[in-house]
User: Fold this.
Amino acid sequence: MKKIIFTIAVIFAGITIADAQTFKKGTNAINIGIGFTNTLYAGSGYSQTVPPISTSYEYGVTDQIGVGGFMGYCILQWKSIYYFNNVYYPYGNTYSYFVIGLRGNYHFLSNNKFDIYGGMMLAYNIVSSYDYYCDGPGIYDPYSIVTESGPRISVYAGGRYYFLNNIGVFLELGWGWTVFNTGIAVKFQKN
Assistant:
């Protein structure tokens, strides 16, 4: 009889633990990540000199809905040379992107380890462009242009896995910042 009661107690304890939510009303979640395959500029020949890095904050308004903010930054660069009168002249372009936005997430599944969500972000993309070319040996003529700044909308689906109570990893797939964003997830909850 004691074995049966113990087994039932263990089963109920397991169900209670499995039902605990990682995201609920009052949760504060922070993601710090790095992105791959950015969607900010798709020009050929550009390379990432600073990959898309970001941080986001989310507050649990309800057990399923979270709102918060986002900041991201990356630099893309294109370099080339041209040949004229037996001399090679470098020229190129650098774009820097600073994105700041508001996010809203809907949490589909949340248990003691996993938090699966989908969301949307309304952001403002601040773009600065720096072009340069060489008029002659050692004579650079740089100039700066601000272009393409404006609002952006992003959609994404993501998840967090907490390997400790408050520390884990996250992964987001989407469009508008990067196709693939991953990094460290930290949460703080009121008990």
